[in-house]
Design goal:
Elements lengths: L5 E6 L3 H13 L5 E6 L2 H10 L4 E5 L1 E2 L2 E2 H10 L6 E5 L4 H10 L3 E4 L5 H34 L3 E5 L5 E4 L1 H7 L3 H7 L1 H4 L5 H11 L1 E10 L5 E13 L2 E10 L1 H47 L3 H27 L8 E3 L1 H11 L1 H6 L3 E6 L6 E3 L1 H18 L6 E9 L2 E8 L6 H4 L17 H11 L3 E7 L3 E9 L7
Helix pairs in contact: 1-5, 10-11, 10-16, 12-14, 14-16
């Protein structure tokens, strides 16, 4: 309490009882107080709404109402001061009802004196102070619980969710009812999670285990899972935390791929220089030899030499082009137009395989700084991959562009064969390919081009169900009006 007097509201329709109580208050040593008498239930509601008192004493009988009714009203008005109920007789039932309703203590009027009143006031103030501290702590930790960016939740020992924060709903994509019906063992699809869960229940704790969460949208999120077995009275429950590291893991993977591309590029440029010099000499020598030969049969061999030199030179040119995708010239441009140009470039292959292309461009796509030529090449690589993945006649490629917060999202998805987990780990590796023909530079080039625009690529795929590439590009505040 502060230095000000203790403000007390005494509600009793019998003035004589109030005067007796007032006399008891005066006999309490060192108690500084301001006592307000309220003679009716209706008047008491006025004071409770103002919520200006530190302590309340309610008589049990208040005309048509009771002190229990008034206690309930006090809680509805969010009065936090302790409430002492006054009864006319020593009745255990009335005492039990008052405590169950929310009173901190009760006193029998016929036994009221300064000593019993002082004891009840001290007990009620201490108990209320302790209860208020608990409530404040609960509110503080509840706020941390709700506002955390991590998935925080509790489950029973079977894995069914009991309580969870908003991030659990946001990251999983499921609603309250779906989460409680599915359970944790259905949300986490890591093959070894059942064993992890069993170990948690046996050992009482598990920390920082990497798991895979499957969302309602079918996305797979990489998460770090920690849990501990707790006991509340006779009931065991599991307290869990999951931290989504998908973006950081993807960024790390892309950084490593970019470094590999840069190293490969330097190596290719060095080799190209070393190979082209002797290749030029071979070509010139073959042409000179051909001009001096009169025998057409021998000219056949010089033609073979020249054709193969041309093929080698063309291969070197392609490798050099793939090693310089980061060299871009950024100018304001429309991403929808760039995508349309890439689709047009792939139009012959799309028609040959009878593929249906579904475009969905949001109307509020702003112009951003981009390099039309390099981005068209990146999109064409992704579209060509989708064309090769889908079945002829039933293939569908969906392309969606939309603005989300401060990012421009570009999604290219197909209903093709999908990508296995093993291949998924290497798809952006330069010169890695799962195709019978191809150099393995398409996706590596696309990744480098997106990075040169300050963007990133996320891939979601399931064997037999298709693949989705999601590209994210930053949008300046001025563009995102």
């Amino acid at each position: 309490m502060s230095d000000r007097p203790l403000r007390i509201l005494y509600v009793d329709d019998d003035e004589d009882d109030f005067l007796l109580a007032e006399a008891c208050f005066r006999e309490i040593p060192d108690l500084r107080y301001e006592l307000t008498w309220c003679p009716s239930y209706k008047r008491a509601l006025y004071y409770l709404k103002r919520n200006e008192h530190d302590l309340y004493l309610f008589d049990y009988y208040l005309g048509e109402h009771t002190g229990l009714d008034l206690i309930q009203q006090a809680f509805s008005y969010q009065c936090e001061g302790p409430i002492i109920l006054l009864t006319g007789r020593n009745d255990d039932t009335a005492a039990f009802q008052s405590l169950r309703t929310g009173a901190t203590d009760y006193l029998v009027k016929s036994e009221l004196n300064a000593q019993s009143l002082q004891r009840s006031i001290r007990y009620s103030l201490e108990r209320t102070s302790f209860t208020r501290a608990i409530r404040q702590s609960e509110r503080r930790y509840r706020r941390i619980f709700e506002e955390s960016g991590d998935m925080l939740f509790t489950t029973d020992t079977r894995g069914y969710l009991l309580d969870f924060n908003n991030s659990t709903l946001t990251l999983s994509g499921y609603n309250h009812l779906q989460l409680k019906e599915m359970g944790l063992l259905s949300l986490i699809i890591s093959p070894n999670f059942k064993q992890i869960w069993k170990g948690l229940l046996e050992d009482g704790e598990v920390s920082n285990v990497e798991v895979i969460l499957k969302t309602s949208r079918g996305d797979k999120r990489i998460c770090i899972f920690s849990g501990s077995l707790e006991k509340d009275e006779d009931r065991h429950y599991v307290q869990c935390r999951m931290h989504d590291i998908t973006s950081s893991r993807q960024s790390e993977r892309e950084r490593l791929f970019s470094e590999k591309i840069a190293v490969s590029g330097r190596l290719i440029r060095m080799l190209a220089h070393e190979v082209r010099n002797p290749l030029t000499n071979i070509t010139l020598s073959a042409e000179q030899l051909e001009s001096e030969l009169d025998n057409e049969e021998l000219s056949f061999y010089t033609q073979i030499i020249k054709r193969n030199c041309g093929r080698i030179n063309e291969l070197i040119t392609q490798l050099l082009q793939s090693s310089r995708p980061g060299e871009v010239n950024l100018e304001p441009g429309n991403m929808c137009e760039v995508m349309d140009e890439a689709i047009l470039a792939a139009n012959d292959r799309i028609h040959l395989k009878k593929i249906r292309v579904v475009k969905n461009y949001d109307s509020a796509i702003p112009e951003i700084a981009l390099d039309r030529t390099s981005l068209q090449l990146a999109y064409l690589n992704l579209i060509n991959n989708a064309i090769e993945a889908v079945e002829e006649g039933t293939g569908v490629i969906e392309i969606h562009l939309w603005l989300l917060d401060s990012e421009l999202k570009v999604e290219i998805s197909d209903n093709g064969c999908g990508i296995s987990e093993d291949v998924m780990q290497q798809i952006f590796e330069p010169y890695f390919t799962g195709k019978k023909s191809g150099m393995g530079i398409g996706l590596a080039t696309a990744l480098s081009i997106v990075h040169s625009h300050g963007g990133r690529i996320d891939v979601q795929s399931e064997v037999g169900a298709g693949t989705t590439f999601t590209l994210s590009f930053p949008v300046p505040e001025s563009s995102n009006g």
